[in-house]
Amino acid sequence: MKRTRRIFLQQFGSILAVGAWAGMTEAAGGKSSPAIRSRLEMHRRGELRERGEKLRDMMKECELCPRMCGAKRLEGERGFCSASAQLEISSHHPHFGEERPLVGRGGSGTIFLTHCGLRCVFCINWELSHRGDGVEREIEDMAAMMIDLEGMGCVNINVVTPTHYAPHIVLALDIAVGKGLTVPLVWNTCGWERLETLRLLDGIVDIYLPDFKYSSGEMAAKYSAGARDYPKVTQQALLEMQRQVGTAHPAPDSLVHRGLMIRHLVMPNGVSGTGRVIHWIAKNLPKDTYLNLMSQYTPAYMASRYPDISRRLTREEFEEAVKQAELAGLTNLEIQPMPR
Ligand code: SF4
Questions:
Q1: CA gap 306, 244 in Å, rounded
Q2: Which of 68, 128, 160, 254 has a Cα at 20 to 30 A from 23?
Q3: Distance between CA atoms of 178 and 169, rounded to whole angstroms?
Q4: Is residue 340 domain-resident?
Q5: Which atom of ligand 1 is nearest to the CA of 68?
Q6: Model's pTM, two decimal places?
Q7: Is residue 189 situated within a structural domain?
Q8: DSSP state of 156
Q9: Nearest Cα to 162, choosing from 233, 92, 100, 239?
């Protein structure tokens, strides 16, 4: 317990020194968009660091995600998500398999965080999210990864399953922005986010990339470790994300630089409640909200133990989902081809 606390304090202590150094070396603003220049201003007036520290305080009795498990992470406890206060990262690399407007020529600069608070039984990244495959890293390491990824030509920084490490990400971003990072930040999330956490990310996240997994609390509870409030919490989160970043449309360079991009994975036997998910989006968000309807469901991890989700999707099930999205009048649809 003590060891983790020491590491954490060390992580945050050393940021002060790095921050001072970064102030001397920071880039002048360069090629960036108004949103990125505003983020640089937040760095200059110390607001990025302040937000990171407020998020860090939420780990005292952790309330970062809707699980609200109260783990004393700053004292070394691990939460329901299995994360302590020590940052753990599974991998970082340019990724060419994300949505086209996030990839460009250089790829999306993904940083896969270890652990997860939602813990779905069908998770395709279960080695990271459930088994905890990853390496302990310092916040400065993460900042260096961000800089490296931009240096490799990545068009954004894409933090995958980020919520339980929100403080670390914002503090790493503060350092990276001070060293000249100019690409957008993508918050690649399960969608199940607290408003209190999201509000501290306002002006920091450029692109929200949430899942909208279920419309039924019963299904969410069954397949995502009792998260019965998933539909309600995610709906509120989507509205807040829309308020912060607006609708996602590609710029002349074919990339999305800002906006809300929703993913919905259609599941077999109606488990994801696709019709109601689509209906809610069409009714509560602009009709040109970006929605990626995904056909790639595969029974990964423990899914074979649950009959309703122990097979792939049929073509008929997916075609029905596409039809419903079109009938609902959604105009900014990405339709994933059926896997062969
Ligand atoms: S982020 Fe982890 S530790 Fe914090 S409330 Fe959620 S599950 Fe608990």
A1: 38
A2: 160
A3: 14
A4: no
A5: 5
A6: 0.91
A7: yes
A8: S
A9: 92
Say if 99 falls within a structural domain. Answer: yes
Does residue 164's CB lie within 6 angstroms of at least one atom of ligand 1? Answer: yes
Q: Check if 81 has its Cβ closer than 6 Å to any atom of ligand 1.
A: yes
Q: Is 192 close to ligand 1, i.e. is its CB under 6 Å away?
A: no
182-196 b/e with 16+ CB inside 10 Å = b?
bbbbbbbbbbbbbee
Q: How many domains does the chain have?
A: 1
Residue 66 alpha carbon to ligand 1 centre in Å: 8
pLDDT digits (tens, 9 = 90+) for 16-59: 333 333 333 333 334 578 889 999 999 999 999 999 999 999 99
Collect all residues with Cβ–Cβ distance below 8 Å to 226 and sequence separation of at least 6: none
CATH number of the domain that residue 286 is part of? 3.20.20.70
Q: Is residue 232 part of a domain?
A: yes
176 forms beta bridges with none
Q: Which domain holds residue 180?
A: 2-335
SS (HEC) of 217-257: HHHHHHHCCCCCCHHHHHHHHHHHHHHHHCECCCCCCCCCC
Q: In this predicted model, what pLDDT tens digit does every residue of 301-329 receive, in sequence order? A: 999 999 999 999 999 999 999 999 999 99
